[in-house]
């Protein structure tokens, strides 16, 4: 029986919480780009992650391709799917005045449909059997902490994505334009931001992030057609509590969520993981629909 | 009375159906009636007031769970009405924080809430050492059929009456513009709370009926989000602004499900998703909107 104190001071748990948190933060980052710029409530975000996971699984089982390489392929593939959705339907919806006026609820219903379709296409083509594979699953030990190489790799990969996105949004002209778009679309348009092009770019980038994370997650978690829901929920917690368009706030929230889940489960049991996740989600929506780390509007 | 004639004829058909003695036919009609009752209840808040619920399964599941827990202690004619009371009280209790959230956030909140309750019930059941419960001595299909017919008729009547009442007009005003409705004196919070409570009531008993029909209980099965998706899709396909809508939508989906569910459940759900998207994008007022447009042109 581990004591309360032992759980609190365990370096192992700390690392586990950090890894889970970083994954959630990265998933939320993608949703933030899509929801922030286009106000599309992509409840199918987790399903794109699931597709990425299948890309990595089949890549490894059929062609022995490293999941880290598959992550790139998965990113390209989900971005292509985003482009197809955009040109097939979303572009029309965004231009239609009736749809545009109520774009949030309408896009939500559309993505509920997309989510059901993707889950069941996967179930139909890959069956519901949970899939897993062994890649870099050897355990490395550092002092009292041991970690499998694939988890460490996923961790580093996600941190790299987060940092790269932050730098991109703060330093590059395109990134700053995207931030402007998230904060105030009309004003951004007036100062010469090419809204349509950037929205399309943000959409593809957001979906690609989901696909990449999916490929990484597939190394350590079971891949099933229905694995997406919890990630969608986590992504929504990240943007609701972190604040819309506030990527740094989102990363902090993602980490917080990782800590709540990891320590919550350590103190109770694995059955509590979903209760905690959905509990935080419900609370976040009820208490703070406008975000805890809300973007302060600067008026000069 | 001309407008009521199709409803009365439909009721007569459903009333005469058990005389055929065909269990398959009665079973399918039972399923159809439960979907009609669920979808009619859903429209009270989500159709009229525009607070779209993506987690109506929570009331369905809790009602079912209540009937299962009291099975063997209470007869069904007591536990079913009590299940309604339980879900009504539950909805009223959570309405204060939940209804403060509006728009798309309300939609995802209802979904999260339903999943949350599902996992809590799963944890409770596994704590009790239960891994699925078998119900023995359930009422016959004919009995359940009559109860479903009664509930579907009741739900349709409630929707019909409320649509024409002050409450219904107030709810529609809330859907069109909540602030404006409040400004002209619509008691927004009270109306939304009443509508939420009412929309939760009949699903409680329907959940109980389904649990008795399957005579087996498992939290994942009764709290399946597919129930919420089906209700939402029925309402949108039929058109939720018309009392005929839920009936047409439910009939369409039950037929589709009967054709596909047993052989290709995934194909059925893929079609469900496609229909949802098509109706949201192209026909937002559903089949009823189409019928009204036809009638206006003629």
Low-pLDDT windows of residues of chain B: none
- CATH fold annotation of chain A: ABC transporter involved in vitamin B12 uptake, BtuC
Shape of chain A, please?
globular
Largest sheet of chain B: 2 strands, antiparallel
Looking at this protein, list some descriptive labels:
heterodimer, A: 300 residues, mainly alpha, ABC transporter involved in vitamin B12 uptake, BtuC, two-stranded antiparallel sheet, 75% helix, globular, disordered C terminus, B: 298 residues, two-stranded antiparallel ribbon, 14 helices, 2 strands, 77% helix
What does this structure look like?
The complex is a heterodimer of chains A (300) and B (298). By secondary structure, chain A is mainly alpha-helical. Chain A has a single domain (4-287), classed as Orthogonal Bundle (ABC transporter involved in vitamin B12 uptake, BtuC). Chain A is 75% helix and 3% strand. Chain A has helices spanning 4-9, 11-38, 45-63, 67-95, 97-101, 103-126, 149-171, 173-183, 185-190, 195-217, 228-242, 247-267, 272-287; strands spanning 139-142, 145-148. The radius of gyration of chain A is 19 Å and the shape is globular. The relative contact order of chain A is 0.20. Chain B has one domain. The mean pLDDT of chain B is 91.
Write the layout of secondary structure elements.
The complex is a heterodimer of chains A (300) and B (298).
Chain A: H1 4-9, H2 11-38, H3 45-63, H4 67-95, H5 97-101, H6 103-126, E1 139-142, E2 145-148, H7 149-171, H8 173-183, H9 185-190, H10 195-217, H11 228-242, H12 247-267, H13 272-287
Chain B: H1 5-16, H2 23-47, H3 57-69, H4 76-98, H5 103-127, E1 133-134, H6 141-164, H7 166-176, H8 178-183, H9 188-214, E2 216-217, H10 219-222, H11 225-238, H12 244-260, H13 265-281, H14 286-297
Antiparallel strand pairs in B: 1-2
Quick structural gist:
The complex is a heterodimer of chains A (300) and B (298). Chain A is an all-alpha fold and 300 residues long.
